Amino acid sequence: MVSLQHITLDTLIKAGHKYDGMNTVIENVIFEVEQSRQMMIIEVDDLQEEYKLLKKIKDREVYSNCSQKFYNIIDDISTELFDDFLQSENIETDIQVEWKEYFHCVYDAVVPVEGEPYNKLIWTIIPSPPKDLDTNDKLYPLVTSIKRKFDALRKEGDNFKSQKEILETQMRHGKELLRIKLENREKLKMLSLYDRIIEWSIH
Predict the structure, then answer these.
(1) At 138, is the secondary structure helix, strand, or coil?
(2) How far apart (Å, rounded) are the C-alpha atoms in residues 180 and 47?
(3) Checking phi first, is residue 163 left (phi over 0); if not, alpha (psi -120 to 50) or beta?
(4) Band of the pLDDT at 163, cuts 50, 70, 90?
(5) Domain total of the chain
(6) Does residue 155 sit in the same domain as residue 76?
(7) From the CB of residue 149, how many other CB atoms can be counted at a distance below 10 Å?
(8) 30, 37, 173, 188: which could join 58 in a potential S-S bond, CB 3.0 to 4.6 Å?
(9) 63-107 pLDDT, tens per residue?
């Protein structure tokens, strides 16, 4: 903590007062400043580390809201939808086309782009699916499998934080980051004053 004596000595320095090493009071202040400076350096370093750690946590909570199981389901859906279904030569009816296009629409809507958060509320605006295929339809097993995987994806996604919860967490972290930044700024000002006094005492 910067004392009145520290501020007074700094004012004398700024006014051009020369150091002569003969004033006992000033020597005591300089000794105190040296001790305070060492403590301040540690405090500044700790705050900077705290800031970096919290910033990393804040960023990770935005982009790591999904589980590995969630991504594994997406991989399974991708294989069936973009490989098996897309390359199938059995698409011969309008209803089969409807299911293929429906699945692509759902995929584009619910699967998050890399680096973007998952929004589980997107399911509330997904269009209704086409009518069910006949159980004898050649694509019935594939369509049923993809439907089940999308259901599993939605169920897994329900366990994640909502956008509101993420926002609340981000605001809390953001305010704490601001507090740390402002506190560190004040400590850097004090450290600058200490450095000025020490530098003056050795010249």
Answers:
(1) coil
(2) 7
(3) alpha
(4) confident
(5) 2
(6) yes
(7) 20
(8) 173
(9) 666 788 998 999 999 999 988 887 667 788 999 999 999 999 999
